[in-house]
């Protein structure tokens, strides 16, 4: 049994009920559209964000999880799924989690429209059910996500990423939706505002750590992530491991590394050089230290809650984020 199986234990029945709810609400009677949706749903990943919604809801409820929580799960799940479809188009990625991406199978035009359709159906479900507080709470992160990607793209062009900008970017593009996931779980079962805010902060720390782990795994040549290693370098993205090395380099060494990154598309051999510079320069270890610090902050928030299977699973989720290899 995997760690994720252990984390899911308190909400197994709720996961099944949510799966039925999802299929019923994000569908189409057009065979071409439904075929794309079926493929996307069958390959949508581990479901960390809706899982966090359910665990947070369970930790704050004495009478179980109901339709409001399912609606919250659907919103965060589908916004995340649509964002990945759009990411693959932007990044020209042919693979997603080791399988052909939607854009590689149906083309960029249809993939973008499928992502838009998923967002539209998710919002329609939330609004038609009258869950305006949940829709408002979740969709705030959609704008942040887009901003994060745009800011990262801008700084990738100019190669002037700093630590402060990096944390702002990863909060917006990754951590904001994870923060919303744990916060909206509490909101969906009527938790008090301070509890919703605490769970949002918990999710923020987990989300920042989650993205840092992704950025670390990008340098792992043996990681089973379903995509090639060092893709961030190839896209000239300066993430925390490289930021650490640049911050601790002489001006001439910093200039050399950035010059090699600037022309990496014309000189593929620069990829191995920069990878080795990050590893030998302590960039991986430094990023891991930051990640563990964030997860420690997240766990400290949970320490204020009484013991329960839901809390235990969220604590275990922190360990999972640190230890995962994909």
Structure characterization notes:
The protein is an all-alpha fold and 326 residues long. Helix content is 75%, strand content 1%. The chain is built from 15 helices and two strands. Strand 1 and strand 2 form a beta hairpin. The mean pLDDT is 95.
Supply the helix-strand structural class. Answer: mainly alpha
Main β-sheet, spatial strand arrangement = 1-2
**Cα shape:** globular
Beta-strand proportion: under 5%
Q: What is the helical fraction, as a range of percent? A: over 70%
How would you sum up the major sheet?
Answer: 2 strands, antiparallel
Count of helical regions = 15
Distance between the termini: 17 Å
Total strands: 2
Q: What is the fold's blueprint, element by element?
A:
Blueprint: H1 3-8, H2 12-25, H3 31-42, H4 48-60, H5 67-91, E1 95-96, E2 99-100, H6 102-128, H7 132-158, H8 163-188, H9 193-217, H10 231-234, H11 240-247, H12 251-262, H13 269-280, H14 283-302, H15 309-323
């Amino acid at each position: 049994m995997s760690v994720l199986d252990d984390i899911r234990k308190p909400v197994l029945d709720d996961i099944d009920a949510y799966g039925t709810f999802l299929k019923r609400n994000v569908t189409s009677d057009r065979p071409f559209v439904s075929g794309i949706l079926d493929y996307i749903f069958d390959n949508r990943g581990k479901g960390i964000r809706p899982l966090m919604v359910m665990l947070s809801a369970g930790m704050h409820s004495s009478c179980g999880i109901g339709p409001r929580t399912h609606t919250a799960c659907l919103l965060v799940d589908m916004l995340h799924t649509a964002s990945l479809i759009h990411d693959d188009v932007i990044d020209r990625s042919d693979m997603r989690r080791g399988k052909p991406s939607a854009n590689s199978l149906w083309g960029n035009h249809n993939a973008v429209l499928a992502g838009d359709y998923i967002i539209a159906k998710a919002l329609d479900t939330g609004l038609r059910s009258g869950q305006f507080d949940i829709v408002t709470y979740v969709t705030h992160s959609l704008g942040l996500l887009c901003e994060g990607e745009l800011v990262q793209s801008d700084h990738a062009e100019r190669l002037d990423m700093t630590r402060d900008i990096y944390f702002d970017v990863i909060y917006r593009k990754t951590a904001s939706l994870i923060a919303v996931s744990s916060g909206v779980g509490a909101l969906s079962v009527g938790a008090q505002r301070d509890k919703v805010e605490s769970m949002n902060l918990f999710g923020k720390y987990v989300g920042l750590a989650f993205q840092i782990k992704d950025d670390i795994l990008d340098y792992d040549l043996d990681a089973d992530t379903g995509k090639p290693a060092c893709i961030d370098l190839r896209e000239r993205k300066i993430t925390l491991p490289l930021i650490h090395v640049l911050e601790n380099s002489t001006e001439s060494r910093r200039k050399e590394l950035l010059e090699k990154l600037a022309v990496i598309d014309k000189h593929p051999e620069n990829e191995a050089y920069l990878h080795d510079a990050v590893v030998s320069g302590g960039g991986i270890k430094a990023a891991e230290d930051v990640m563990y610090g964030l997860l420690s902050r997240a766990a400290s928030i949970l320490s204020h809650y009484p013991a329960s299977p839901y809390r235990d699973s969220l604590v275990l989720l922190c360990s999972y984020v640190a230890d995962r290899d994909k």
